[in-house]
Amino acid sequence: MSKTSKKAAAVSRKARVEEMRRADRARERRNRVITITLSTVIVAGLAGFGVYALNKADEKDEQQAAAAKKPVRGEQTWDAKKLGRDHVQAAVDYPMNPPVGGDHNQAWMTCDGTVYTKAIGKENAVHSLEHGAVWVTYNDKAADADIKALGDKVSKTPYTLMSPVDDQSGTIMLSAWGYQLTVDKASDPRVEQFLTKYVQGSQTPEPGAACTNGLTQ
Fold first, then answer.
1. What's the chain's average pLDDT?
2. Where on the tree of life does the source sit, at the highest rank (predicted)?
C-alpha cells in the first residue's frame, strides 16, 4: 500500500473513531436527560402525594374534631357537676338506669374491651365511666346477632365494657360519664358515633386512668 493510501486509511479510521465517540457522548447526554427528567417526575410525584396525604390527614382531623363537638342524635345528657364522685361501700340509688355517673365503689370494672355475659356491679361500672370508658348494655329484647355484633365491637375497643342489664328500659344502651344513648340495633350508626366521641372523650373526669387490673366479675 502506498503512503498516500495508508494515510487515507488512517484518516478514515480516525474519522470513524471520532464518529463513535460523538455517538457515545450523544447517548450519554440523552441518558442524563432521561435520568434527570425521570427523577424530577418522581420527586414531583412524591411531593404531590405527600401534600395530598397531609391534606387528607388534616381533613380527617378536622372531621373528627367537628364530630367531637356535635351531639349524637338522641343522646341524653346530665350535668356532670351534679354527679357525685365520692368512693362509697354501700349500694347507690342512681336516678338513671344504667347510671351515667355519681358516687361509686373504689374498685372499677376492668374495661379494656371487656365483654361480661352476666350482670356486673353498677357502682363498679360507674367507676369505669369515670376513667373514660363507655359501658354498652342490653336487655332480653336484644337479638342474639346484635349482642354478638356489639361484643365483637367492644372486644376490639379499649376503654369499653359490655354487660346485660335486664331492668333497663332500652333494648341497647350506651353510657358514658354524663351521657347516654338508646338504640334498637347494633347496626345503628350512632353506636359508632357514640364510641368515637366518648371513649376517653372530653367528658372524662379522670382521663388516662387505668381500665385494666380492675374487677373481672
1. 85
2. Bacteria
Say whether both 118 and 186 belong to one domain.
yes
pLDDT, residue 31, reads 73
Per-residue pLDDT tens digits for 142-180: 999 999 999 999 999 999 999 999 999 999 999 999 999
pLDDT tens profile 28-62: 777 777 777 777 767 666 666 655 555 555 554 45
214 falls within a domain: no
Distance of alpha carbon 144 from alpha carbon 172, whole angstroms: 12
> DSSP letters of 50-117?
HHHHHHHHHHHHHHHHHHHHSPPTT-EE--GGGS---B-SS----SSSS--SSSB-SSPBP-EEEE-S
* DSSP output for 130-167: HTT-EEEEE-TTS-HHHHHHHHHHHHTSSSEEEEE-TT
Residue 81 and residue 119 in one domain: yes
Is the dihedral angle over the CA atoms 122, 123, 129, 133 positive or is it negative?
Answer: negative
Position 112 confidence tier, pLDDT thresholds 50, 70, 90? very high
Domain shared by 65 and 85, yes or no = no
146 and 189 fall within a common domain: yes
Q: Domain range for residue 2?
A: 1-70
Cell (9 digits) for 217: 366479675
Q: Are residues 42 and 95 in the same domain?
A: no
The answer to whether residues 95 and 120 belong to one domain is: yes
3-state secondary structure of 176: strand
Number of structural domains found in the chain: 2
Indicate whether 109 and 179 sit together in one domain. yes
